[in-house]
Amino acid sequence: MIKKFIVYPLLVIALLFAITFGAGYTALYLEAKPKFYQLNDVSDVAPETPKQASQVYTQYRHLWLSEVFGFDQIPEDELARQANTYPGGMVIEGKNHEKKIALTFDDGPSQYSLAIVKQLEKYDIPATFFWTGSRVLQSPEIAKVIADKGYPIENHTWEHQRNGQRDAKEFWQNSVSVTNEAIKKVTGTTPSVFRPSYGDISDEQIEFLNEQGLTVVNWSIDSRDWNTRFIKQQDIVDIVNHHMHPGAIVLMHDDGGDRSNTVNALPAIIEHYHAHGYEFVTVEELLK
Ligand SMILES: [Zn+2]
Questions:
Q1: Which of 13, 115, 128, 233 has the smallest C-beta neighbourhood within 10 Å, fewest atoms?
Q2: pTM over cut 0.70
């Protein structure tokens, strides 16, 4: 009797739970793994040819599960819309077909920033760091070491919130301007480029920051290294290398989780781009 009324129903519940969990996990996995598609062949376009429009080259398919697990970003269509609405004021890739690429690392400084710099130094290439004001004040020694080596330190908000809904002036005063000041205080340099956390920024905020002399920069290749649950070292390499295009701006991270995969993916990425005649530049250099 006990078996019939307690054990069997419990087994059925456990089975249903396992099926639901398994299906949910599989959906997340399928969403996260790189999805490649046919790219335009741009190899024979003259370097100085301007692009007709800016675009994000990596795909991100929105699923509600992403929001549950908290790793959703602004859709690539919206990033492209803003970049094409504010040419030169909001940028996601270089404006012509020169074989240049800018690697960017967000959310530091941290111990991973130092490990990343070690890799960059092996190949003698530059990169750009987008750091939050709060983290810069927490790790001023690391910030100073890297800034002193000549790497540009740019603005990535004060504490990495979703900011798109905030009043532009209030956002400037309480998040962006204070981060500029923190970076200036610690490194001696003032940022000229701003990257919104999650890529989340309103049109009004773009206009306001442009008036303050900051260019807003997101990305054309999202390495998805932030998704440590599913994206491994080889995935990062595959994503960044497959989406190679002139004027690429690559989103990567030097904090906000275990970034060993990012650090270790760098040699294969750098060697791939070098083999195809690309030059690594800072974001500022790419915008010229
Ligand atoms: Zn970030």
A1: 13
A2: yes
